[in-house]
Amino acid sequence: RHADVDLHNLGLGGSALLDPFVARTIAGLEADIISVKFGINLVNADLMRRRALGPAVHGFLDTIRDAHPDTPLIVMSSVCCPIQESTPGPLAPDFSDGTMKFVATGDPAEVAAGKLTLEVVREELAAVVAQRAVDDPRLSYVDGLDLFGPADVGELPYADNLHPGAQAHRRIAERFVPTLRQVRDSIG
Length: 188
Fold this sequence. Notes:
The protein is built from 8 helices and 5 strands; from the N terminus they run αβααβαββαβααα. The protein is globular, with a radius of gyration of 17 Å.
């Protein structure tokens, strides 16, 4: 609304897992700007290891770029999620206080063996985008912590330890709008 854009939301409720069919779907859409976000679902599903993440992101972006070689493409990492910042997944439900919350069940020591955390995913995404941006000037990276960081979580905590609430989503959108406008204005 605030950026005056029409959106196609391909959010898959806990299933944003770098699936090739999603990249093909994006590739098949007409788009003036494309934005993708990776991270939290990969970590909380304990889906892959660090070694596989970079190539999977490259493949996903390659599929999009094959169809949209000149379209501005924004890659975003996850916003802050304290339970997954430095602790790998998988996540598990926790009803110990009588409400539904999530807890990370991984062991931080396993990060050295390749398990993913949000910190690791942000590092890998930034590296992939930096490598590709050398030859792809319309590719950019947005660190999710710039959209909603630890201080924001302190102010607007997640009721279930995982999902931002409505006020948090508004803040994230407000902070993303300038990036979106800048990209939109760069294409005329």
